[in-house]
Design goal:
- It is a single chain.
- The protein is an all-alpha fold.
- It contains three helices and no strands.
- It is elongated, with a radius of gyration of 17 Å.
């Protein structure tokens, strides 16, 4: 993985903390809208992280590939991932 590992781990730890907080909110029967806000915040962090990982993939794994066939395969993988992202 070519994305910034420290930043990636920091964001993942943030989401893990958010998930722990959301589970506590559920256990405490907190207001549904408040739980939903926290879920959306977690999703936003994960989307941001996924964009950064995909950008690093494009910049380092695809752009620097010398073998054209492998590059085409990597581009097809990326297109497949974008298709999945657009369905959400």
């Amino acid at each position: 993985m070519k994305a910034d590992k420290k930043k990636t781990l920091r964001l993942l730890k943030t989401v893990r903390g958010q998930m722990d907080g959301i589970m506590k909110m559920v256990e405490e029967d907190r207001y549904c809208i408040d739980i939903s806000h926290q879920l959306m915040a977690s999703e936003a962090v994960l989307r941001k992280l996924n964009r950064e990982i995909l950008a690093a993939h494009l910049k380092y794994c695809v752009k620097t590939e010398k073998d054209e066939q492998i590059m085409d395969e990597k581009i097809d993988e990326l297109i497949g991932m974008l298709d999945k992202l657009m369905k959400n």
